[in-house]
Amino acid sequence: MSEMSTTTDAVHREQNTAPGPLPDRLFGQMPDWNYMLWPKSTQVIMSSLFLALGLIVSLQVAERLDTIMFGGVAPIWGTILFTPWLIAAGIFYGLTGGLIVANINPIVSNLTASSPLAPLFFPANTLYAVTIALFAWYFKTPGEGLRFREVFVANAIAGLLNVVPYILYQTIVLKLPLRVSLGIETIQFVAFILSLGIAYPFCKKLLEAGVVQVR
Question: Collapsing DSSP states into helix, strand and coil, what is residue 74?
């Protein structure tokens, strides 16, 4: 009876994650993985460093675009290209991976002066990464991968927290009216929501391709 139940559960999980129509292939339930809030293995650290490298390369371009297009007031392009890497770090490697990926890029950004907002990347990225990792810990159950709606909720709340340092900077340092700052950060929050269209399939494909070894 126990073996039959195990087989049924396995078939159920396979059906949830098996390729189907295009939306299901991209946005269906993720395959299962072993989640730890504070992993400490060398593998986790090295994998997180590779994700951090991907983020650095992406944002070196995005931060310059934001400076040219928006005067360095808000990281709109940075948000779109930053989300896939930070979500992957937080949901696969917990707080360890999230904090590594969140804080390596700001070091590079400050050293290369790629954005006038670079000092704010430390608190903003950390708020985002910690929130994603905690929500992954809350939603993730043994034997099941995360679903799109769960990652959506985590990303939305993390995105709201991420914009707080920028609002403080814009209103206190730049002396922008609060309504102007809220308008700018509303656009950035929309960028967070839209970027999930890239981030979720990215994370799902990393698991399905076996690129992420987290069992």
Answer: coil
Query: Which class for 35: exposed (0-12), middle (13-18), buried (19 or more C-beta within 10 A)?
Result: buried
Q: Which residues contact 149 (CB under 8 A, 6 or more apart)?
A: none
Rounded to two decimals, the pTM is 0.86
In CATH terms, is domain 37-208 a member of 1.10.1760? yes
Q: What is the mean pLDDT of residues 119-135?
A: 96
The confidence score (pLDDT) of residue 22 equals: 58
Domain limits, the chain: 37-208
**Which whole-number Å values give the CA distances from 134 to 36, 120, 152, in the listed order?**
10, 22, 14
Tens of pLDDT, residue by residue over 73-87, are: 778 898 999 999 999
CA distance 101 to 28: 26
